[in-house]
Amino acid sequence: MNDVRPVKLLIAALGGEGGGVLASWITNAAVAAGHVAQRTSIPGVAQRTGATTYYLEIVPHTANGKKPVLALNPAPGEVDVMLASELLETTRAVQAGSITRARTHLIASTHRVFTVDEKSAMADGRVDPEKMQEVLRKFSKSALLADLAATAREAGSQLNAVMLGALAGSKALPVGDDFFRAAIRAEGKAVAANLRGFEAGYALATGGLKAVETPFVATMPRAENEIEARAVRALPRDAAEIALEGVRRLTDYQNQRYAALYLERLERFAKHKAADAAFMQELARLLAVRMSFEDTIRVAQLKIRKGRLERLRRESGTDAGALIQVSEFMKPGPEEIFSMLPPALARRILAWIERKGWSERSIKMKVSTTGFFGFLRLRLLAGLRWWRPRTLRYEEEKVWVERWLDLTERSLLRNPEAAKAVVASAALIKGYGETMKRGLKNWDLLAKFVIEPFLEGKLPAAHFADAVTQGKIAALKDPEGGKPLGALIESLKTLPRERPIAAE
Amino acid sequence: MAEVSFHSEIKSLSLGNGDTFRGEGILGVTKALLQSGVAYVGGYQGAPVSHLLDVLVQSEDLLADLGVHLETCTNEAAAAAMLGASINYPLRGAVTWKSIVGTNVAADALSNLASAGVIGGALIVVGEDYGEGASVIQERTHAFALKSSLWLLDPRPELPTIVHMVEKGFELSEASNTPVMLELRIRACHVYGSFEAKDNVAAKFSAKHRIPTPAAFEYDRLSHPPATFAQEKHKTEQRLPRAQKFILEHKLNEILGPENGDVGIIVQGGLFNVLNGRLALAGLSDSFGNVKLPTLVLNVTYPLVPEQIAKFCAGKKSILIVEEGNPDFIEQAIGQILRKADLNTKIFGKDVLPSAGEYTPLVVASGLVKFFEANGLKAPTLNGWLAETEAHHKEVASALGNPLPPRPPTFCTGCPERPVFSAMKLLKKEMGPVHVAADIGCHAFGTFAPFSQGNSILGYGMSLASAAAVSGTQKRRPISIMGDGGFWHNGLLSGVAGAVFNKDDSVLIVMNNGYSSATGLQDIPSSAPENDGRGNGLEIESALKSLGVPWVKRQRTYGVVGMMDTLRDALTSDEKGLKVVIADGECQLARQRRVKPAFAKLKGEGKRVERTRFWIDPDVCTGDHSCIRLSGCPSLTIKPNEDPLRPDPVAHVNNDCVGCGLCGEVAHAAQLCPSFAEIKVIENPNFIDRLRHRISSALIALLGGNRPAPMPAPAE
User: N or C, fewer C-beta in 10 Å, chain A?
Assistant: First the structure.
């Protein structure tokens, strides 16, 4: 049979990424090279940031003028070349069968554009990137996986131009390199920048350029003073690393005495046989986070920190010649403001505000940290650190931490696995204002209806660890409502009752 | 002015004999209209056919030269009614819209048009928004062709055939005095290919050469009794046979492959390429469409020609009908044709192929395999491919473990409609839920996460009408949401006039963003005239007031607190009747297209320019993402936390931020977290800027802070 199989190429992009332009460059290059090329796309409403695909079929010129009947849909297992601009969408293409071991040469950018589901999760909703890359390598014939968006940034170009270069460099299409370059020139828009991107992508594919590595953080710091050395001595290595960070955080947050309190609390647990390194690490981490609670003093301190402005300029891509003015959005409510007073007084005022129905009120502020008066206000506030231990908020946090540690310790004696879950439950409390109140409320429910009943032997011990973990997940699942947690608590009531076992 | 600029495409529209046209399918249709000598063109925008009109709107010179009258209609009913010009005059005209929805809106005019019949060729180009990428309910345009006796073309999805069918469509229309519909699926509209162009033809009568006298009074041309009775007869007794004769004589349907065989396939033209691909895999065709099974390609799917069908089926044991969508009109008709012709050919169709959903290669292959098996044919490669594909799916699913999160479309970065939904979400928390009648348009993205609002969608501009009985039976006032596109399309009459007339106690939000944004930024009656488009600045507020709406308030959308106050007021006010909130905020896509180049130009010229954007302090952000749950802006995203104590990702504003201000508004309206900062960047600062900067930096340094920034050198 003198049939000619078309070369099939699929592009997966997100709306606004220039996938259409990329598809047209490839089509034009293929036509210029003397081939028959057809492409189509599914833009629809995807032009507004959704996922979109472009599908091309190219019949090599050996077809001698006969007119091919080309397909408009990619068929699973038949795509020869896949270009994908984002990691999750690439993985989706594997799922659809557009990338297969037998056939597909894959060129994909590994950067992430997170979906709303991933972004809006209470904690960390991101899909595991390692796993996705592993799947891509496993299910493709060849894979060029690199952060092409970063390559584009470094080249001062666009992602689509880099992808075109990588395609040319991969030699996966029967089209000479110069046809691609000519397609960019013929299009006539941002030609110099696009050619720069093209060459960067080309070099990447042909081994002339190294992929941009995402910077890697976290190294074991060295203990620099006595209290830091004490942290290292007291804890297993992995936990010490975190504790060291915690000591520094809390010294900066309050003072060395406060950091010492942190260490004492940790040491109390380190004595326990059941407290392994993983347990201590997580405890050290969450205790440091909870003890450096974000009150107004802390926020002010962070906002006038040295080096912050340089970071801000860098991250916002501001040119050297430009000036920037920074306004901070703050909206302290009665709770934030009056919990800075001594407990007795603060409680009375807050109760009065509650009676008046003013609890939800707050003061909207836009404070300029690049202006003198704005800076001064925050500087004065940040200077109130000495006062902090006298505040209501400090006392409330202390009470909470003690309760949490107490529950953790009691759990550790009964069931080390469950103790880990109890430690982890502290992650429910984060954020400010509303969010924090909701977190506290959820944690209270978890403590009262899950942790305590287990500790008191009212619920079967075998379910302890699992129930606490599930409770935490449930509370995080529905940040606004809290229904899943309620449902979980209800379901616990149906667990088979067992006779209470006295703690050994 | 539409989103896409058709600068180079406009040139292709002027190509003539001997030239090769290259471009996408729907633009090929536009060129074919000009080659067919149309006198007028119109329609209503909507994917996937928006480009047909968009390119013409930008081709004023060409249209003037050919004398083509162009009408951007306010809705599909208006477009269909415009074809009325071809009832009395020998004018060729074409209109376009998105189907099924557009055809629904046009139905009344279409019925009347079809009854009267035409003397000038009338072509309706419908984008069959079906299958992957579709944004509307899944129904078939075919039903309208059947009920109104309109002929339906479904060409093979390649440019030469599409163009040929446009040209033949006009002839068919004139030969049978019947309007013709040309149906193109999404991928066919966007297919890029080429065809040999012909010269454009100027119509005998047109905007340039006007008809000197109106048509004589002829009662029979009116869709009015008693003429309608005769017209109904005329449809079946005259027009149908003439159409069938034309279809046969001009070989509009194609018979491919060997003349004889035990089994054959009848396929809708638009599906031929999918079918051919699978047949090729089975070894029953090749890349050039040389099928080895007798295949009847229906480029005209209504009317069928019974003798053609009967002849094709005669002598065959069985046939497979490849017909997408539901109901199986063609299969039913063929069944009847065979029965009447007393043929025993067995029909396979919706028994081996699914009744609903797009006919993708995988779907067609599964159907073919079943058909082959039932008829003792073997296609091991096809079976093998299906098995491999299934194995692949299973293997990938187990390797991935969890399902991947979906990525529905969402509001653009800085979209003015997003803040309205932020305000509604906050208000819902404050006051409890209300019934939300959603509508068609960008604002329908408010039904997706993180907003997830909307109880029903009843069509374009129909939200308020759909809430009429809800408002009359519910304790709380419902909120209806409508875009300005939907408002002019029919919401003003179906919704507003109706609600005022019936004294409905209801709240309507009209998103006044200035364009028909979802379809590609086309101008609408209220588009600002100075923006270089066809808009003429009709006032939504005046329109509402002139209808006697008692309560109208305008609110800038980005002011979330203000929007909450206005909506709270509308929901709780003692005043009965319709309350309309006009939510003002220009489409950011359009705004950025204008503002970005202007900004770059001024900056390049060394002029002082300011821009704002937002930033999140990663040290202050605790990573609970409640800001994202109130925004969902693409530029408000997450990034890894550099803090080893807090592994959860922090919120992060990327460099796409256009500084719309929503982040700050939400932070204030919702009492979120103090990590948001607004950055005002002053490019080319002037003397006063620099002086102020120097003074505050010095003072801040005295307080122990660091200097805000290295001192920029004064501009030359």
Answer: C
